[in-house]
Amino acid sequence: MSDLRVRLSQNAALLTAIAIFILFYVFYNMNHPRGFSVAVLIQNSNEVFTLAMVAMAQTVPVLMGGLDLSVGAIMTLVNTIASHLLNGSPAQMAFGMGVSLAAGAACGFVNGCIVVYGRIQPIIATLATGAIFLGLALFLRPSPGGNVDDDLSWAATNDLYEIAATYGYAQDGEATWFQPIAWIPVPLVLLVLVVVFIWLPFSRSVTGRTVYAVGSGEGAAYMSGLPIDRAKIAAFTLGGFFAGIGGLYLTLQTSSGNADIPQAGAYTLNSIAAVVIGGTSLLGGVGTAIGSVFGALILRTISFNFRIFEIDPLMQPLFEGVVLLAAVSLGAFRVLRVKNTLELFR
Amino acid sequence: MSTSPSEPAQAHVQLTGVTKRYGGVTALDNVDFACELGSVHAVLGENGAGKSTLIKIMSGVVQPDEGEIRLDGTPTSFSHPAAANAQGIVCIFQELSLLPDLSVADNISIAEPPRRFGLIDRKAQRRRAEDLLARIGCEDVNPMARVRDLPLSRRQMVEIAKALAKDPSVLILDEATSALTSADVDTVFGILRRLREDGISILTISHRMHEIEAIADKCSVFRNGRHIETFAQGARSEGEIVQMMIGREITAHFPPKPPPPEATKPMLQLEKYSWEGKLKSIDLTVGAGEIVGLGGLDGQGQKELLLGLFGVLKGTSGTITVQGKEVTIASPQDAKAAGVDLALIPEDRKTEGLMLPMSIADNLTIASLNRLSRGLFVDQDALTAAVEDGIQRMQIKVGSSSDPVSTLSGGNQQKVVIAKWLMTDPKIILLNDPTRGIDVGTKQEIYRLLRSLAEAGASVIYYSTDYEELIGCCDRVAVMYDGEIVRELKGDEINERNIIASALKMDEAAE
């Protein structure tokens, strides 16, 4: 087989997810009264970013063959922390953001240590820690509220022009060179930055590869002399960090903190759906966080479509479930092609 | 290299008084052992003789309870496999250590990937994989391919490439050639000879005597955790070695074959049996009481033929006739149903043969539960009796039948797989390389068992990668090439020369 065909066949699930997303999103824009406009794009990217981060957070433990039931809780905890800290002088705000992200990573680190040193299965360890994180979040924000800097919130949730205009970069965003990129929504830029500067380097590091190796065959990974414990802790820590970015962004988007327990649960479950739709195997070893981002995009685009067609919102969970089943069934088509049924069990 | 006692070669790795116990079992008992610089040293012994423990200690997987390891004269110890690797001791394990979801190139460089700016340099990694694959004659393997998608024999070659990538000074092979084709074995031996000339010490565990004869300089025999004897290769006859290994006289390697039967009643007939270009219009008849071997190079359709018969393959064409009745076999459930009565001893006992965490008793009875049931429920008395019967029939060495099957040695695990299928009273028994990685004693028990099953009227189809087995065991050998049966050998025609010639499709040239 040629290299191209090998690449295509190995990334079939990711490519399918991208194609489904494009299909849904173009369909949505064609039916939207202001379809294909920057305003719609900005709104959509705001609505998608947090889930995309939580889905990336879920991907790392799943690649290792475990589920993280605490990603939604970490997001919520970081949301409540950030809602106390994102105000004051620029230095104070920067400090607040740093503390928020560090808190997310710390939650993941705790998960990793419990899994590695407590020898507890990830699904049950994170079920417990998730409840603890939500408890802390409720303690920090018994009722919704918060004090978030308006400029920061505005700049983070609009296009690049608004950042420049708010903080006086590129001649308040009027510089000629700046115009071609001025329309790009900030959350999209953040998403690309996270993927390019965090996910891709991680997946090409020895630790990242060890995460894949553990999901593919932990015994073989150990016998190959790989740093398994370090990789497990790193995987959960990175997951916590991604969830923390999601929580931080949610704070900027809503200008408040809310220890919303049903919301935390919904994010966790949606993150698993996004991971699966994005082509990552729940058995571990196969997939990428980029796929999960597209999984999140697909899930959100479904709800966008619901809005413009004015279908009863009560129908939405039902429809999302159907789409999840359908998307997962696409992966099952290989079953029909497999001529050696023994391969299905490998 | 010289092995005369007057000029002792330098010991590269030396073990002194090494003892290892697992619970109450002494796996290695006060063993002294030395592996010399620039030699190939074969370790022989039955399963449970302590070979695996020996190499696990040398490669850092387990730590000895007593004794000392010296590397180039310096005392050392390895707390984990990576520590042994760091000192140049690299082991190719019997249980494949490859990661199925990663690419060939990823696997080869898994321990020490080439890096740029701290990240894995995929281009360098790919070049390295290409170089190593070329070195072991595997240019056909795409370094980008996932290991999961490769056939077993290629995976084993990737495993060897992975070991070479670590630039070993001591290379340990644990049954590393058992899944390879003969051509690959020759290539690997060529590499081993070159490594030996470079002064690398090679330790190999193999159950194939002719391979040991071909490559080893020295042999050591282990039995019951003790080092029995070390001698220069060739100093002992095959019979003497086997006797040292099992400690009792072996009269015949293979049970005697009955005279070639006159036209027996056909048990299984295949006509124009085809599948996906891997099986091409196969016609084969197997009589009652006959053992038919499948020969040929690895990957010529032998495994597919067995899997197809057992209902695992979809989209087969042609007809299967069992005892005069045409049958359709769409699943293993169909295959073992009354009237078809097939059993398949699969290739990989750990994944296809056994449910490792389940008990020996559960594994033994799992294929015949419907026979042991009354109405909806399993008859516990019948079950207990069946388990005892199975253990006795195959002489499986078990502590308690309620222990997990994973606690048994490889040979005994394989016996459980065979006993499980014998409980279904099969009329046609398919075996896919059942003696891979199994000790000599158990192998011989399997040979005798097959013969007694045949004598009781069953038909046996036996695929083996070891030509000696085909020659010693089979009444007839169908040699396959590229999905076709190119030649059927009978009686005296069954010899190594004919099998190899047919396997390479050299019939015309050879005659």
UniProtKB/TrEMBL annotation, chain A:
Compartment(s): Cell membrane
Organism domain of life: Bacteria
Membrane topology: Multi-pass membrane protein
One family name in Pfam for this protein: BPD_transp_2
Membrane-traversing stretches: 12-30, 62-82, 94-116, 123-140, 181-200, 233-252, 272-298, 318-336
Keywords recorded for this protein, A-Z: Cell membrane, Membrane, Transmembrane, Transmembrane helix
PANTHER family referenced in this protein's UniProt entry, alphabetically: ABC TRANSPORTER PERMEASE PROTEIN YPHD-RELATED-RELATED
Full protein name: ABC transporter permease
UniProt organism field: Roseobacter sinensis
From TrEMBL, chain B:
Superkingdom of source: Bacteria
ABC transporter domain residues: 13-249, 262-507
Key words of the record: ATP-binding, Nucleotide-binding, Repeat, Sugar transport, Transport
Protein name: Sugar ABC transporter ATP-binding protein
Molecular-function annotations in GO: ATP binding
